[in-house]
Structure formats: structure tokens, C-alpha cells
């Protein structure tokens, strides 16, 4: 009996985190066609801070739902329990993973070797697609032979397919599944648990660009948006999650969600009356909705999104949201500044001066007092926040230079620099001294921009 369908060797290219190769058996070929699978622009939305790091060993270990695992492991799925499991590749003593494991270097754990829940889902999805491909042309490639479990048994893809008969995991077409879940959401007699499950399932499917479009086409996206307004917290949370995953790097669906009024709803869900779980997913969805989407960004400004963020800054215990908000602002500023700069360059204009007036977000931020506001966040004791604040200051310099040159800000920067330099030179080399070194460098660079 086939208990385990074994599987995935996740190869990480040394160059980028957007080139996860996925093959059935160990292979050096990066044969993944990434066209249809979205790459996440960054790791911000993965909630990695909530998850414990997976410690690989030579034994199979279960991967907890949502847990990140490093690339380069054998991963398999136990079809009986539905659990994913992972272990080190043969001949791997695991030392290369150790460094990442026992550290608190938060800056560095946002690392190309950490794959997220999303990645794992994409990997599994990709794997399933391969099954479709195989059945389509009826042939088995060389890669379908080989040690699927890392053991000695070899099976052809045909044998596996036979044993999988009755298991519909790979066989149903996505659109049928999506339609089924949408119908459950559209049936008033569905139970809460059924609706929760339907949303969870949709969240899995919509990472693929075509699936997200299909969801919109059949009217499912508008249902999801309706559920963002549900009186049930668990449905609001999940609906935000689905929306965020559906719109991420998917311009057509971003446009549609914006048209259907998702943005004002998301801003409302960020408010302090909402439970933190809802707010976090709303922030994820908001980020996905307006990243790389200038029209959405302008709408965000029009709807006073910046003021909503200021409220977050002034509220206690919102650190995770504040970090995400600042990260989002920094990313969008970078995006807009690059866009404007390249546009001006093309027109042969000078870009060395202050271009802040032509960058919509920066212009609003300056008008609304963010040149004063952001530096004041340096007073937090959280290094994570201070790191994000410094990165924000870096991109804001172009419009806030005279403000940042003021003595009180210079003094805070100097103080931070001294503190971090001291820690960086600490007694022995450690992750925290490395992190302090990175932070000290960040301040130093910023100060050099201000002279
Ligand atoms: C939901 O059900 C109604 C009829 O009850 C139908 O008109 C509508 O198209 C359905 N919506 C979706 C998204 O399936
Ligand atoms: C959300 O629900 C409220 C009532 O609870 C309603 O007034 C509002 O129109 C709804 N908004 C959307 C976008 O459906
Ligand atoms: C922040 O970093 C500094 C310098 O590395 C360190 O002394 C301090 O303990 C860290 N603070 C927190 C809250 O982790």
C-alpha cells in the first residue's frame, strides 16, 4: 500500500527567493514554470513571526499547519493523515540549517532559505499540476521514476496513479472546486463551519492567477467581499485572507476588488474595534490590494488611509500592525519614487533634486506631517520597529531632508548609532551583534544622506 506520496525537493536558487524549483525527484533542473504561480513580492504577509522554525533532522517530522520550512529538504505528504512531513536529504548533516535555527536575528531570518506556508502551498499545487500534465500526454518522463520516498522502492507514475484512484486530491479541476466552495458560501443554510472551510479552501486556490480571475468571473470575489463584512469574526478574518491572496500581484483582480468596494471595508477593519486577528488579515489584504497598483494607492490616499495608519501608531500594543504599515509605506514610496524617477529620466529631466512633489504618496505624507511622525517612532524600544522606521526614513529623505536635519532627530540617530555600535563590537561575535552592526550601518548611511 502506498502510504506516502513523496515528493518535493525544493531547490533554492542562490540568487533569488522567487525561483523555487520543484521537481518530483532530486534533480538539478529548475523545471518549474512559474508563469502561473505568483511570486510574492516580499515576506511581509506570511505572518512568519507567529510560527516556530522547523528543525530538520534525518527522521521524518510533521510540519505544522502554516509552519515555515527551509528549502532543500525532502518533503512528503502522508495521504492518510493529510499531514506534510519533512526531513533532511540523504547525506545532508543539516549543518547548513543550524545557523538559521538557533538565532534571534530577526533581520536575517527574512531569508531566502525560509519558505513560507504560501510557498509550500504553491509547491503542492505545482506538484498537482504535474499530475495533470502527466495524465494529459500519457507519458512518463524520466523524473517520474525514481525514489519517491527516499527509500529503495521505485514506482512509475502509472502505478501511483492507480493507487490514487478514489483519491480525488489531484483529479478535480480547480474551477469545479472553486465553484463548489462558492456555492457553499452562497447558500444561507450553510453552517458557520462549512463557510469557514469554504473560505480556507478558496484561499488555497486563489494564489494561482487564473483561479483568482475565475473566482471573480463567477461572482465569488463579490461574495468574499461581502463576507469581509460578516458579523462573524472568523468569517471576516478568512474573507480578508482570501481577498489578499486573490489580489496579490494580480492586476485584473486588484482592479475588480477596488471597483467592488474592498478598500473602504478593509480600512474599516483596521480599526481598534476589531479583534487583532481580523486587523492583521485586513492589513495583509490591504497591502496586497495596493502594492504595485498605482490606482489603488491613490484611492487609499483619497480614503484617508494615512490617517488610519496614524491611529495605529498612537494606539498601544499594535506593534505588528505598525511594522506592517511602515513596511507597506516604504515599499510603495520606493515603487513610486522609482516610477517617477524613470519617467523623468526618460523625458531627459533632472532627478537629482527634490522630486517629492511628483510622488503622490510622499506628497501626502509631507502634507500630513509624516516627516515629524515617522522619526518619533524611533523612540520605541523594539528593534524590529526601529529597523523599519530607519528604512522608511531612508526613502523619505528626499522630501523630508530639512526636518530630518533638525537637532533632535540628529541626536536620536546619534544615540541609536552609538548604542548599536557598542553592541556590534560586543565581546564575541554573535547573531545579535551582527544584527546591531546592520542597524548601525543603516543609521550611518542615513546620517550621511543628511549632511
Ligand atoms: C447566489 O445565489 C443567487 C440565487 O440564490 C444567484 O442569483 C447568484 O448568482 C449566486 N451567486 C453566486 C456567486 O453564485
Ligand atoms: C456592511 O454592513 C453594514 C451593516 O452591518 C452595511 O451598512 C454596509 O453597507 C455593509 N457594507 C458593505 C460594503 O457591504
Ligand atoms: C535592541 O538592540 C539593542 C542593540 O543591539 C539591544 O541592546 C537591545 O537589547 C535590543 N532591544 C530589544 C528590545 O530587543
From TrEMBL:
According to its UniProt record, where is this protein located? Answer: Endoplasmic reticulum lumen
Q: Where is the signal peptide, in residue numbers? A: 1-16
Tell me the domain of life: Eukaryota
Question: What name does UniProt use for this protein?
Answer: Nucleotide exchange factor SIL1
Per the database record, which ranges form the Nucleotide exchange factor Fes1 domain? 159-215
One GO CC annotation, please? endoplasmic reticulum lumen
| GO BP, one annotated term | protein transport
Question: Where would you say this protein principally sits, based on its record?
Answer: endoplasmic reticulum
Per the UniProt record, one Pfam family is Fes1
Claim: Transport is one of the keywords in the record = yes
Q: Which family does it belong to?
A: Belongs to the SIL1 family.
Amino acid at each position: 500500500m502506498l502510504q506516502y506520496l513523496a515528493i518535493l525537493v525544493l531547490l533554492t536558487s542562490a540568487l533569488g527567493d522567487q525561483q523555487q524549483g520543484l521537481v518530483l525527484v532530486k534533480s538539478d533542473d529548475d523545471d518549474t514554470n512559474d508563469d502561473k504561480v505568483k511570486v510574492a513580492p516580499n515576506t511581509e504577509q506570511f505572518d512568519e513571526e507567529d510560527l516556530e522554525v522547523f528543525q530538520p533532522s534525518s527522521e521524518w517530522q510533521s510540519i505544522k499547519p502554516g509552519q515555515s520550512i527551509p528549502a532543500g529538504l525532502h518533503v512528503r505528504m502522508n495521504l492518510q493523515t493529510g499531514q506534510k512531513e519533512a526531513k533532511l536529504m540523504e547525506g545532508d548533516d543539516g549543518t547548513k540549517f543550524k545557523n538559521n535555527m538557533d538565532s534571534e536575528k530577526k533581520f536575517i531570518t527574512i531569508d531566502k532559505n525560509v519558505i513560507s506556508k504560501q510557498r509550500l502551498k504553491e509547491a503542492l499545487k505545482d506538484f498537482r499540476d504535474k499530475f495533470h500534465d502527466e495524465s494529459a500526454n500519457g507519458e512518463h518522463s524520466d523524473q517520474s521514476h525514481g525514489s519517491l520516498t527516499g527509500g529503495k522502492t521505485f514506482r512509475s507514475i502509472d502505478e501511483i496513479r492507480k493507487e490514487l484512484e478514489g483519491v480525488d486530491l489531484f483529479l478535480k479541476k480547480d474551477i469545479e472546486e472553486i465553484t463548489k466552495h462558492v456555492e457553499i458560501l452562497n447558500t444561507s443554510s450553510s453552517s458557520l463551519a462549512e463557510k469557514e472551510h469554504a473560505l480556507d479552501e478558496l484561499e488555497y486556490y486563489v494564489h494561482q492567477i487564473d483561479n483568482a480571475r475565475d473566482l471573480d468571473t463567477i461572482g465569488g470575489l463579490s461574495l468574499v467581499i461581502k463576507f469581509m463584512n460578516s458579523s462573524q469574526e472568523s468569517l471576516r478574518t478568512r474573507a480578508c485572507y482570501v481577498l489578499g491572496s486573490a489580489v496579490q500581484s494580480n492586476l485584473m483582480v486588484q482592479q475588480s476588488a477596488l471597483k467592488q468596494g474592498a478598500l473602504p471595508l478593509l480600512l474599516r477593519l483596521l480599526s481598534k474595534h476589531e479583534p487583532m486577528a481580523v486587523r492583521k488579515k485586513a492589513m495583509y489584504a490591504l497591502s496586497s490590494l495596493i502594492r504595485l497598483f498605482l490606482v489603488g494607492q491613490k484611492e487609499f490616499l483619497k480614503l484617508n488611509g494615512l490617517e488610519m495608519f496614524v491611529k495605529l501608531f498612537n494606539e498601544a500594543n499594535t506593534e505588528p500592525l505598525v511594522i506592517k504599515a511602515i513596511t507597506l509605506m516604504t515599499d510603495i514610496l520606493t515603487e513610486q519614487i522609482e516610477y517617477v524617477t524613470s519617467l523623468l529620466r526618460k523625458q531627459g529631466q533632472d532627478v537629482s533634486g527634490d522630486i517629492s512633489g511628483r510622488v503622490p504618496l510622499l506628497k501626502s505624507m509631507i502634507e500630513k506631517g509624516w516627516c515629524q511622525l515617522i522619526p518619533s517612532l524611533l523612540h520605541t524600544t523594539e528593534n524590529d520597529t526601529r529597523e523599519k522606521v530607519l528604512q522608511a526614513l531612508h526613502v523619505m529623505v528626499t522630501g523630508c531632508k530639512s526636518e530630518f536635519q533638525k537637532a533632535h532627530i540628529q541626536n536620536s540617530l546619534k544615540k541609536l548609532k552609538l548604542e548599536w555600535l557598542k553592541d556590534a563590537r560586543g565581546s564575541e561575535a554573535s547573531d545579535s551583534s551582527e544584527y546591531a552592526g546592520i542597524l548601525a550601518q543603516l543609521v550611518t548611511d542615513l546620517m550621511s544622506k543628511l549632511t
